[in-house]
Amino acid sequence: MAKNYCMKCVLPIEYEQTFLNCTSCTYTVHESCFLKLENNTLEGSKDNWECNFCRNKNASTSIPIEPYINRMESLLQRISTLQEEQEGIVNSVINICNAASGELVDSINFLDSRLSSFQSELDSIHENGKCDEQELGISKEEEEKLLTEQ
Fold this sequence. Notes:
This protein is mostly helical. Helices cover 61% and strands 4% of the residues. A hairpin with a 6-residue loop joins strand 1 and strand 2. It is rod-shaped and about 135 Å long. The termini are far apart. The model has no long low-confidence stretch (mean pLDDT 76). One of its GO terms (molecular function) is zinc ion binding.
């Protein structure tokens, strides 16, 4: 037959000694070791004894969890609200970017049309070879001087 050992003093438990067996686990201890440890007192029957670990574990299940559940639900609601706000912000940024890109496209198109008109004016000047004083903004003498320098 296998000997039981005290979980506190690690000495074998003899049959004539008083010992305690936890009803929830395999914890076994001499009654004297248990009573010496942290000024424990033996409450209730020795036959229905639980070690501190099992007693605390079983007691922890009796703690009301409703406040924690309420807090969790409150946090989940706040997360949901923050997600909705985030989606609204993202949509606003997308709308602003779309509007800005539309304005940018309009500006680019306007500049492109202006550039095309300047290019066509420049091409007509090159085709004609000469232009009048009003088109260039310089006098005929200055124009001839520039042409001879080239």
